[in-house]
Amino acid sequence: MAISSRDVLSRLDHAVPPMVVESLLGVPTGTSVAARPAASVVLLRDQGRGLETYALQRHSGMEFAPGMIVFPGGRVDPIDGVPVVDHDLTDPALVACAIRETLEETGVRLSSDDLRPWAHWITPEVEPRRYDTFFYLAALPAGQQATDISGETSGAEWRTPAWLLSAADSGKIAMLPPTRSILLELAEHDSVEAALTSAADRIVETVLPEVVQGPDGWIFEY
Predict the structure, then answer these.
(1) CA distances from residue 13 to 9, 123, 165, 184 in whole angstroms, order as listed
(2) How does DSSP assign 130-168, residue by residue?
(3) How far apart are the first and last CA of the chain?
(4) What are phi and psi of 176, to 5 degrees?
(5) Tell me, what's the pLDDT at 65?
(6) Which of 3, 56, 78, 109 would staple 153 via disulfide (CB 3.0–4.6 Å)?
(7) Burial level of 47, CB count in 10 A (0-12/13-18/19+)?
(8) Would you give the distance in Å from CA 186 to the centre of its chain?
(9) What is the pLDDT of residue 125?
(10) How confident is the model over 66-99, as pLDDT tens digits?
């Protein structure tokens, strides 16, 4: 049975992280910038403790998502091509971006056949920097190793989704909703094969959160 990528939204915390709230306070009311096309790859491997993913921690001084746990990725570069109007996960420019960013940040060489579409998130309109990001799953190719070579991170390591979620819950690390949503679903799979199989008939739907100020503070509405 096909599963929608939006099904996980009901399991997300609606609270906006403090550092995100801080960035919002400096944005003039009523302003919005265009979201830049981007791609991110969730690298997977099987280890004795189960399914693992390669997680990067961004430098605390980065302008976007400082200190956050993320997956390899970045915005589309002219060398990748020009995304078509109403681009989707099969857009050649996005696929090229996913492959290039993974190589530049981890040293891992992927092909288009390695990528499995998984999710599509757009940064809320109130953010000063916005990305229209497509997420793909990919198994670590045999004989290759992932190495932190991006220059934008303070560290990178293989961890199980359950470990990363637990560390976030305890305050040891921080992550934005797209990362958490992906980890929540991956935690339900015990192998790379199981995760990739679940991606085969997945329905990828766009998520554009709205940030609103409620009686108890800023929250995401999905």
Answers:
(1) 9, 16, 12, 12
(2) -EEEEEEEEEPPTT-------SSEEEEEEE-HHHHHHHH
(3) 24
(4) -85, 165
(5) 55
(6) 56
(7) exposed
(8) 13
(9) 87
(10) 568 999 999 999 999 999 878 888 999 999 999 9
CA-based nearest residue to 37, from 104, 90, 93: 93
CA distance 11 to 4: 14
CB atoms within 10 A of CB 156: 20
**How confident is the model over 183-215, as pLDDT tens digits?**
999 999 999 999 999 999 899 999 999 988 878
Are 116 and 194 within 8 A, CB to CB?
Answer: no
H or E segment and range at residue 122: strand 116-122
pLDDT at 130 over 70: yes
Nearest-angstrom CA–CA distance, 126 and 31? 7
pLDDT band at 217 (very low <50, low <70, confident <90, very high): confident
- The amino acid occupying position 34 is A
Measured CA to CA, the distance from residue 128 to residue 117 in angstroms comes to: 27
Asked if residue 89 lies in contact with residue 136, where contact means CB atoms within 8 angstroms, the answer is: yes
